[in-house]
Design goal:
Length: about 160
């Protein structure tokens, strides 16, 4: 039976750091599902559907695209993970500051369902300073994010943020 992991996040927008983490997860799991969350605590730049489409486009030419699925996440993450017969939630860590929040979420998920594990994967050093928030700030200020996000995502960022 294949091992399936869920990589949840808001991905507003997806970055090359996210893709690096996905590639690391694919070394461990047979299949990884990128679950795009609405996250009501954040005010996203893109709708969940737009983020879903950007991820699909970004993965279209990926060499392991047959092992990656993209889905929209609504409701509790552990309910979604159980509904697709996955066993693990994958989360990325850039710094110690990420760990506290992620650890809290992992403990809550374990409380809600003891059969689902959380795997923390360290971000590659090349991407440790990248976050979706910082990417948006750079573009808002007129900076170039080429090489930090997929090309199609960079174009959509410039288009969206130039309208504001």
């Amino acid at each position: 039976m294949p091992t399936i992991a869920v990589y949840p996040g808001s991905f507003d927008p997806i970055t090359n750091g996210h893709i690096d983490l996905l590639e690391r997860a694919l070394k461990i799991f047979d299949e990884v599902i990128i679950a795009v969350a609405a996250n009501p605590g954040k005010e996203p730049l893109f709708t969940a559907e737009e983020r879903f489409e950007m991820i699909k486009e970004s993965m279209a030419d990926h060499p392991q695209r047959d092992r990656v699925k993209v889905d929209l996440l609504q409701g509790l993450l552990v309910d979604y993970v159980r509904s697709i017969s996955a066993t693990t939630i994958v989360r990325g860590l850039r710094a110690v500051s990420d760990f506290e929040y992620e650890f809290q979420m992992a403990l809550m998920n374990r409380k809600l369902n003891t059969e689902i594990e959380t795997a923390f994967i360290m971000t590659g050093m090349r991407w440790i300073y990248i976050s979706s928030r910082i990417i948006k700030e750079v573009v808002r200020s007129g900076g170039d994010v080429s090489g930090l996000v997929p090309d199609g995502v960079a174009a959509k960022l410039v288009e969206r943020l130039s309208k504001r």
